Amino acid sequence: MKSLFEPVPLGKLQLPNRIVMAPLTRNRAPEAIPTPLMAQYYAQRAAAGLLISEATAITHQGQGYADVPGLYGTEQLDGWRRVTDAVHGQGGRIFCQLWHVGRVSHVDLQPHGQKPVAPSAITAKTKTWLTKADGSGSFVATSEPRALDVGELPGIVQDFRHAARHAVTSAGFDGVEVHGANGYLLDQFLKTGANQRRDDYGGSIPNRARLLLEVMRAVAEEVGAERVGVRLSPVTPANDIVDENPQALFDHVVRELAGLGLAYVHVIEGATGGPREVEGRPFDYGALRQAWRDAGAKGAWMVNNGYDRRLAERALEQGADLVAFGRPFISNPDLVERLRANAPLAAIDKATLYGGGAKGYTDYPALQQG
Ligand code: 8OZ
Predict the structure, then answer these.
(1) Per-residue pLDDT tens over the stretch 50-108
(2) Surface-to-core class of residue 274, CB atoms within 10 Å of its CB (0-12 exposed, 13-18 middle, 19+ buried)
(3) Which residue's CA is minimally distant from atom 3 of ligand 1?
(4) By 3-state DSSP, what share of the chain in percent is helix, strand and coil, each rounded to 5?
(5) What is the DSSP letter of 148?
(6) Measured from the CA of 354, which atom of ligand 1 is nearest?
(7) Is the CB of residue 241 below 6 angstroms from any atom belonging to ligand 1?
(8) How far apart, in whole angstroms, are the C-alpha atoms of residue 19 and residue 16?
(9) Cα Rg, the chain, nearest whole Å
(10) Alpha helix (H) ranges present in 194-326?
């Protein structure tokens, strides 16, 4: 029987346990540059089998919120190097989540105040977060996007490829996770609610999946498939995204991914950070995993959303290999030890989730200190 607390290979890495820290946006990187405080935060959590970084913009165009980190400038890469050095210094392993927000952005966050880009010129009914020069922040509606020209898409693929290379070489990450979830650019291309294109990147399922698959092939070729994962969210309503037939869509996606030799597929079950069942959006995750295995995939199957120890153990019994925990890792830096000991978990302070400094970030104590 599989245990959460046993070592498991991931690509060429050996993870000490099956517990993964999910990517968590914390908005503490002014000018998109990772800080020493971020290095401390990740290093505190290095006992996880694997850490996945918060979503990190591959380009300025891929940026959609104030104070989220990037991966396209020297200072950003140097900042990340401090983070990965600190994690490795504590014996941990960390992947970088590669992010292009697509339409979930605002003209004030875009290069030269331009419109954000998307598969189609459809505004997402969602909000982003902006800060003013005085440091005060507010939620604002996302801007109307412009549809990417088909001739721009090879450039987007290149942007992912270059970011992957820089993540691994300059920034010292052990690998990368492509953010294909939560209503951001690649998910916008996948799903009918955001993609009304009439070219080779819209319409049929193979067409809508084309950009994600091109990105995955490019990134895998660039840094080696064993260092690459992908995050998917078949039915999340996050950022106003919807698809008319997610089971068929994601069946196609995972079958096509199966041949690439990826380290893992990471699936958000249900509504991101919310209920595991979404009304009106049924989904069979076991069938999805089976489709991936039937197509010959050897990588790890990582599940996420609302897990506790009991649910995680049941998921391992049912065929998952890794379980990603999000919010519990924010308030429990020693989550692995607490799960092992069946110790109570500290509650999260919602007021300090996004933005700010050490409070609600690096000041959650470990059990023996508490
Ligand atoms: C919370 C706030 C802002 C962004 C995601 C990157 O949902 C995010 C995100 C989460 O994937």
Answers:
(1) 999 999 999 999 999 999 999 999 999 999 999 999 999 999 999 999 999 999 999 99
(2) middle
(3) 25
(4) 35, 15, 50
(5) P
(6) 2
(7) no
(8) 9
(9) 19
(10) 205-223, 246-258, 285-294, 309-317
The CA angle 369-86-99, to the nearest 5 degrees, is 110
Spatial neighbors of 337 by CB under 8 A, at least 6 apart, are 47, 343, 366, 367
Please give the DSSP secondary-structure letter assigned to residue 41. Answer: H
Does 136 score more than 90 pLDDT? no
Measuring from atom 5 of ligand 1, which residue has the nearest CA?
182
pLDDT for the residue 369: 58
Cα distances from 344 to residues 91, 315, 332, 337, 347, in angstroms, run: 25, 21, 10, 11, 9
% of the chain with per-residue pLDDT over 70: 99
359 phi, psi to nearest 5 deg: -65, 125
Main-chain phi, psi angles of 213, to 5 degrees: -70, -35
Q: Is the CB of 239 under 6 A from ligand 1?
A: no
Domains of the chain from N-terminus onward: 8-369 (3.20.20.70)
Residue whose CA lies nearest to ligand 1 atom number 2 = 25
